[in-house]
Amino acid sequence: MWHVPRLQLVRAAALSRRHLVQKATLSIEGRRWETTTSRGTLLEHQHLTEDDSTGLTSYESAEDAQERHRGAFLTWKGLPEKSRTEHECPRPRLISFESTPTFTLGRRQDDLTQDQKAHLERPLDVHLLRHPQPIRMLFHPQVKKTNRGGLTTYHGPGQLVLWPVLDMHSSLYPKYSVSTFASHLEATTQQFLLDMFDIETYTNRDEPGVWVRASSGQPRKIAALGVHHRRYVTALGTAINIDVSVKGGEDVNPWARFVPCGLEGKLATSVVAELGNTAQGMSFDISDLAQRWASIFEEGLMDASRRGVDLGR
Fold this sequence. Notes:
Elements: H1 6-16, E1 20-28, E2 31-39, E3 44-49, H2 59-77, E4 93-97, E5 102-105, H3 114-120, E6 124-128, E7 135-139, E8 142-145, E9 153-155, E10 159-165, H4 178-197, E11 201-204, E12 207-212, E13 220-230, E14 233-241, E15 267-268, H5 271-275, H6 286-302
Helix pairs in contact: 1-6, 4-6
Pfam families: LplA-B_cat
GO molecular function: lipoyl(octanoyl) transferase activity
């Protein structure tokens, strides 16, 4: 088991792959955030930071970034076939971020009553001291309808959100089906958790996401999955609980306010919760962790045989 220095390997791996990292400040439709973009062989990685003091980004800003790139894909695909060139085709892009507290609802989910919505929006006390920029704040969570399937889930500080935006039928890499794309997201997350934290996980066809194996007790979900596509251009992705609170009362534990994705009898967990005492003294740089996930994901993007749990290793 490793401690903080393992994160240095993320930086070394990124350099060894000759990623070009650029930082820029974007201002679009009144929203401003810093974006760090890494360019590898094909996959672009854009990590969003809207608030420099916390490293957080609003869910709406991340959606804006996603939809702009998705729109570029759809515009290109809408051109007459003779007018398209691979040179002008948008590249696949991974958008990663750490969200301000937001409860999201599935597209087929019934609207919440005013009381249910007010319950989720109650102040949430967030204390995350393992970040490069420790967070000690009282937040008022948002509630937002999304175009994914499933029921209510949560995104917030201490959680790594990863949204690959790509054309599943691109000629630049082996094609995906909807199911193989979802499986690749899960497999990448499983490999990431094993490589970085020695956490063994499993998946369940009937319950999307990544789960921690337990010899006893209730099943524990460590990463959520939500996928949407339009004309084979993807949106949304996965969210991994790193050090988000998963214990305590509703004032500090957002998962205590609802039944995650409607799965009665199942618990939410996190990397810190699973590591227990081993996590003492560790710190987590969300952008570094996102870069490591991106590296694993790109292996499977380019080579379909590496889209399984062990990525062909």
